[in-house]
Specification:
three-stranded antiparallel beta sheet, about 30% strand, 6 strands, about 110 residues
Length: about 110
């Protein structure tokens, strides 16, 4: 196991870069079918985020009542069939002067 992150109602375990598992309570296993290898996971109260590689970009899903997913709205994501993987947008961290999207270089 590479990493564990816990929210108030779920946990995320990164077993390997390609095998994240998310366990809401009670135990119910969900694989988010993210489109890239997962480098790191983070969990909020009722939402989760993953740092993906090799792009080093972020995708978030779950409850979003206060905009905590970072998409600029309050729409919940990831609960409907077909809403994960390529259908889940990247969080927009802004655009660099060269026109490329900003990416996370290091998390501490």
């Amino acid at each position: 196991m590479l990493q564990v992150a816990s929210g108030s109602r779920h946990s995320c375990a990164l077993l390997s870069p390609s095998r994240p598992h998310f366990t809401p309570q009670p135990i119910h296993y969900v694989h988010p079918c993210l489109s890239q290898a997962v480098l790191q996971v983070a969990a909020g109260s009722r939402h989760s985020c993953a740092l993906l590689g090799p792009s080093r970009r972020v995708k978030c899903w779950g409850r979003n009542r206060r905009g905590q997913l970072g998409y600029g709205d309050d729409t919940q994501r990831g609960g409907a069939a077909g809403s994960m993987g390529a259908n889940l947008p990247y969080v927009n961290l802004g655009t660099a002067p060269d026109g490329q999207p900003y990416a996370v270089q290091q998390v501490q």
